[in-house]
Automatic annotation (TrEMBL):
This is Helix-turn-helix domain protein. It holds the Pfam family HTH_3. Residues 8-60 form the HTH cro/C1-type domain. GO terms for molecular function: DNA binding. Transmembrane segments: none annotated. InterPro entries: Cro/C1-type_HTH, Lambda_DNA-bd_dom_sf.
Length: 64
């Protein structure tokens, strides 16, 4: 199972958005984004949803 950080990193690559760009969208600095995505920590659902929203995505849940 992929982590939230891995999913966000994949979206950034796919959309050509840098961590610096995301930091500006989130009104924070690049270091905070780097730490959020790289450290072995869980991202809270609310933070994950906020980041996805800023990138123009939403979370959907589908039954297997």
């Amino acid at each position: 199972m992929r982590t939230a950080g891995e999913i966000i990193e994949d979206i950034l690559k796919k959309d050509g958005v840098s961590q610096s760009d995301l930091a500006k969208m989130m009104d924070t600095d690049r270091r905070a984004i780097y730490q959020l995505l790289r450290k072995f920590q869980d991202i809270k659902y609310s933070k994950f949803a906020e980041i996805l929203d800023k990138l123009g995505y939403e979370i959907t849940i589908n039954k297997k």
